[in-house]
Amino acid sequence: MAKIGEAIAFGAATIVNAIAIGKGSAFGINLWTKARVELKENSRTIKVKILPDVGENPRLAKKVVKKVFKRFNVEGVGARVETESNIPIAKGLKSSSVAANAVVLATLAALGEKLNDLEVVKLGVEAAIESGVTITGAFDDACASYFGNVVITNNLKRKVERFFKPEEEYEVLIYVPEIKSYTSAV
Fold first, then answer.
1. How far apart are CA 33 and CA 86, in angstroms?
2. Which of 22, 63, 145, 168 is deepest in the core (most CB within 10 A)?
3. H or E element in which residue 36 lies
4. What's the CATH code, domain 4-163?
5. CA–CA gap between residue 172 and residue 160 (Å, rounded)
6. Which of 27-31, 88-92, 110-114, 158-162 shows the lowest mean pLDDT across its residues?
């Protein structure tokens, strides 16, 4: 089998956090995560390597692959997943949402399957919830990562309420704190 899929997803930043009322807003930024998924026939093991942070927990990437496999009734197949990113993990720059999008897309490419855009995002959001890396599912963050521009979403209903391109291009200054702060610990 040894089918390989590769994909890239871009970063996002928060405008309004959805934790309080279930509605949020975010915008796309030009940071990225690349994912590579290699399918392994006659295996059920999913191995994950997260670069450059090899010590990070791989549960999200594993859950994403499992959900894509389940969606297409794939059994008896394992995977080797590798992600590489210039997005610092647990610093508020949506690294989990971006990684989920990239791994969904790479897994689909490896399988030779397709889903519509919102199905891709929703699979990643479901995996993020099930793996415990998010409180609301971060649907707003995942949409901003996937579609770019600015999104306003209802995270509880997983609905995009508004999507638009800003009238002009903005430069964004990002402060990256030294300590990590995982959303699941909030």
1. 7
2. 145
3. strand 23-41
4. 3.30.230.10
5. 23
6. 88-92
- CA–CA distance, 160 with 96 (Å, rounded to integer): 19
99 to 94, 130, 161, 165: CA distances (angstroms): 9, 15, 23, 23
| CA separation for the pair 81, 116 (Å, rounded) | 22
Whether the pTM exceeds 0.90: the reply is: yes
Distance of CA 184 to the CA centre of its chain: 15
Domain boundaries, the chain: 4-163
Question: Quick one: average pLDDT of 36-64?
Answer: 92
Say which amino acid occupies 8. I
**C-alpha distances out from residue 3 to 30, 78, 103, 105, 113, Å:** 29, 11, 14, 14, 12
Question: For the residues 30-59, what does the mean pLDDT come to?
Answer: 92
